[in-house]
Design a protein that fits this description.
Layout lengths: L1 E5 L10 H10 L4 E4 L6 H7 L10 E2 L2 E8 L2 E8 L3 H13 L5 H14 L16 H10 L10 H5 L1 H10 L16 H10 L3 E4 L10 H10 L5 E6 L4 H14 L2 E5 L31
Parallel strand pairs: 1-2, 2-3, 6-7, 7-8
Antiparallel strand pairs: 4-5, 5-6
Length: 286
């Protein structure tokens, strides 16, 4: 069994590296990747511990990058790279270049005003939360704004935020290139380090035509493969992506997106209880 999408407390997971490895051993995962967001600190720690005393399986280097392509913010999973070659690039473009939340807030406000969304005069105050949380609440104070949004966007802040960063026509759109490097730059850096790129959890984004976006990434040689199994995917979605990869000669990956105790019902190795990704999914990786 494999799990190629997991997080530690080096990013937004709650388990430390040792705990993650112990849980992977308990679940009898024989191929694991630690894919923290925009950092490879877990692999630096692995250098300093005898992890084979904790975990007997194989570890494939991994990281989950936040990036932007053609105005769409999405995540790419990089695998099987020389992390020492990628280290300085990650430090420069991610670890030492934190998102400017004031800029994000101002961009979202500008989009809202351009699209006639009614807002009271407000300023960003970090203690009030993330920009999207503040603006979402502000928008909902005015019922007349509802006509500009789909029901799910209006009722769920997470759905609203995904629309903000993936739909250029969304009334509160934010181009996340203000924060993160382009997908082209990520691809170039990972390739130079000998790695492979996969689009992560395609169906998590609020894309009106997800397969069309996949076609763009494939045709522009941004990705080598697709994460075809994920905790949130339906069987039909996974099958669609597997057929797509087979037809287009793309590699496949899969994982639970385990975050430890942060999302307790999404467990390492088994997701919401029924995942069991077989090793053959990555049998053609070279």
């Amino acid at each position: 069994m494999i799990d190629l999408h997991t997080h530690t407390n080096y990013s937004d997971g709650t388990w430390n590296l040792s705990r993650l490895l112990k849980e992977a051993e308990i679940k009898k995962i024989n191929v694991l990747s630690i894919t923290d967001h925009n950092t490879i600190k877990a692999y630096k720690e692995l250098e300093n511990i005898d992890y084979k005393k904790i975990y007997s399986g194989k570890i494939i280097t991994g990281v989950e990058f936040t990036t932007v392509y053609n105005g769409v913010s999405f995540h790419m999973l990089a695998y099987d790279f020389d992390y020492k070659k990628l280290d300085i690039w990650i430090q420069k473009n991610y670890e030492n270049n934190k998102p400017n939340l004031q800029k994000e807030f101002d961009y979202m406000i500008k989009s809202c005003k351009e699209n006639n969304i009614k807002l009271d005069i407000i300023k960003y105050k970090s203690e009030k939360g993330w920009p999207v949380d503040i603006i979402f609440k502000e928008i909902k104070k005015h019922p007349e704004n509802k006509k500009f949004f789909k029901e799910n966007d209006w009722n769920n802040v997470d759905v609203f935020f995904n629309s903000c960063i993936t739909n250029k026509k969304f009334p509160a759109f934010v181009d996340f290139s203000i924060h993160y490097p382009s997908a082209e730059l990520v691809t170039e850096a990972v390739k130079e380090a000998g790695g492979k790129l996969f689009i992560a959890h395609l169906y998590k984004y609020n894309l009106e035509k997800p397969i069309e976006f996949l076609n763009i990434l494939k045709n522009d040689k941004i990705i080598d493969g697709v994460e075809v199994e994920h905790s949130i995917f339906t069987e039909e979605q996974s099958l669609t992506l597997k057929k797509y990869c087979a037809k287009n000669n793309l590699l496949m990956s899969g994982g639970t997106d385990c975050h430890g105790d942060k999302k307790k019902d999404r467990k390492i190795g088994i997701g919401y209880g029924n995942m069991h990704i077989e090793n053959k999914l990555i049998s053609n990786w070279k």
